[in-house]
Amino acid sequence: MNAMTPIRTPLIEAKLPQDRTLWIKNEGAQPSGSFKIRGPSHFLSMNDIPSGSVTTASTGNHAIGLSMAARAHGIKAIIMVPESTPAKKLEAIRRAGGEVRLINGDYEMALACATTFAEESGAQLVPSYDHPDIIAGNRAVFSEIQQEIDTTGYTVFAPIGGGGLFSGAITAFETGGNSVIGVELSPYERVQRIVWDGAGDLPPMSPPPPSTEGVAIRTLGKLPAKIMRNADLASFTSVSVADLRNTCGWLWHEHKIRAELGGCTAVAAALRDTPAGHSSIAILSGSNIDPALHAQIVSAWDAHQN
C-alpha cells in the first residue's frame, strides 16, 4: 500500500445523549482526503487504459482521487473542474499529478466538457459515480464496517452527491435488517424529482456555499438512480448548511476530526435522527476544507456553546 492508494479508514464510536451510539466511518483519513479514491482505484484495476490517459469532471474530491489512482497506475489524468472549485482542492489535484482545466460553469458543464474531450482525444472517461466499478469501489467503505462490527439492525446514513456512495451502501446492506438513509443537502434535494417524478435535473443554481460543492449538485447518475428506485431498504432526508456547520464544529470539539462541510452531511442527519436507545452508522465522506474556513466554523461553534 502506498500514499496513492486507498487505506482502511478508522471507525469511531461516539456515545450520544439518550443512550444512542453513532459509529462514524472517517473517510477523510484517506490519502486523498475523501472516499473518492476508492472508486477510481477500483475502476483502473478493472479496466485497461490503451490511451494511457483518463479524464473526468469533478468539484474536487473525485479529481484528487482519480489523479492519485492514475499516478499509481502510471497514466495521465486530465481533470475538468468548475471555476468555483476551492483553491485547496485545486492544489491537491495538481499535487497528486492531475492536469487541471478550469471550466466556466458548474459540475454539469464540466461533465459535458470531459465527455467531449474523451470522445475527441481517446482518453478514458472515468465517471465520478455513474459506473458499476466506481460503485463497487465505494462498497468497500461498508464492507470494512461490516468486518469490524455487527451491523445487524443498525440504521446507515450516507450522503448523496451523484449517488455513487449511497449506491454502495444499498448494495452492501441488501440483507441484515438495515435501513439505509440517503442524506441530501437542502435546497439541492433531487432524488424524488429525478428517480420517481421523472422531472430531470434541477435547474441551474447559484454557486454552492463553500465546502459543500460535493453534495450541492443538480443531477444523479443513471445507474445510482436505478439502484435507488429498486431499493426497498432506502429512504431519504435532507440537512441544511447550518446543520453542516454545527456538525463540523462538533466533530472537531468532540473527536478532533477535521471535516469539510459536505463531508458532514450524513453525520449531521445521524446526530439529529438516531432514535433514543438505538445505534447508527454514518459516513464522514471528506476532510478537504480550507483551514481558514474550518477555523472560522470551529470558532463560531465554540462561541455558540458558550
TrEMBL record:
Record has Hydrolase as a keyword: no
GO molecular function: L-serine ammonia-lyase activity; threonine deaminase activity
Entry-linked SUPFAM superfamilies: Tryptophan synthase beta subunit-like PLP-dependent enzymes
Record keywords, A-Z: Lyase, Pyridoxal phosphate
Keyword Transit peptide tagged: no
Swiss-Prot/TrEMBL cofactor(s): pyridoxal 5'-phosphate
PANTHER family named in the record: L-THREONINE DEHYDRATASE CATABOLIC TDCB, THREONINE DEHYDRATASE, MITOCHONDRIAL-RELATED
Biological process terms in GO annotation: isoleucine biosynthetic process; L-serine catabolic process; L-threonine catabolic process
Residue span(s) of domain Tryptophan synthase beta chain-like PALP: 7-274
Xref: Pfam families: PALP (PF00291)
Name the UniProt record assigns to this protein: Tryptophan synthase beta chain-like PALP domain-containing protein
